[in-house]
């Protein structure tokens, strides 16, 4: 599909995350220390929406069973069982605009 405008930089301050639905994909976009990252919003454990959880630095805690994910690379950080990584989307910052490539 290509790049889609996700937000303007000032709409997503450091330490915040935002939910996007682009072309049927549920996507979580986060600002970690001024850098933007996008991963699947759907937890690979049982399908919770991760943007309803908590963000602490680059770590997102799932609201349901507290799996901890690294939003910068989609990898699982902490959980009793192994889960496959979250899908990662490319983010492009162009001036004041933040795009996600889907
Ligand atoms: S649904 Fe995310 S940890 Fe269970």
From TrEMBL:
In terms of superkingdom, the source organism counts as Archaea
What GO molecular function terms would the record report? 2 iron, 2 sulfur cluster binding; metal ion binding
Keywords attached to this Swiss-Prot or TrEMBL record, sorted alphabetically, are: 2Fe-2S, Iron, Iron-sulfur, Metal-binding
The residue ranges of the Rieske domain are: 4-100
Which InterPro entries does this chain map to? Rieske_2Fe-2S (IPR017941), Rieske_2Fe-2S_sf (IPR036922)
Which cofactors go with this protein?
[2Fe-2S] cluster
Output the PANTHER family linked to this UniProt entry.
FERREDOXIN-RELATED, RIESKE DOMAIN-CONTAINING PROTEIN
From the Swiss-Prot or TrEMBL record, give the protein name: Putative rieske (2Fe-2S) domain protein
Q: Can you name the source organism?
A: Candidatus Nitrosocaldus cavascurensis
């Amino acid at each position: 599909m290509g790049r889609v405008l996700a937000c303007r930089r000032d709409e997503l301050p450091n330490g915040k995350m935002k939910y996007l639905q682009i072309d049927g994909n549920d996507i979580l976009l986060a600002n970690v220390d001024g850098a933007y990252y996008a991963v699947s919003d759907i937890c690979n454990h049982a399908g919770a929406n991760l943007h309803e959880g908590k963000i602490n630095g680059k770590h997102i805690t799932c609201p349901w069973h507290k799996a901890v994910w690294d939003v910068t690379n989609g990898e699982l950080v902490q959980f009793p069982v192994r889960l496959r990584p979250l899908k990662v989307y490319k983010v492009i910052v162009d001036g004041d605009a933040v795009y996600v490539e889907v």
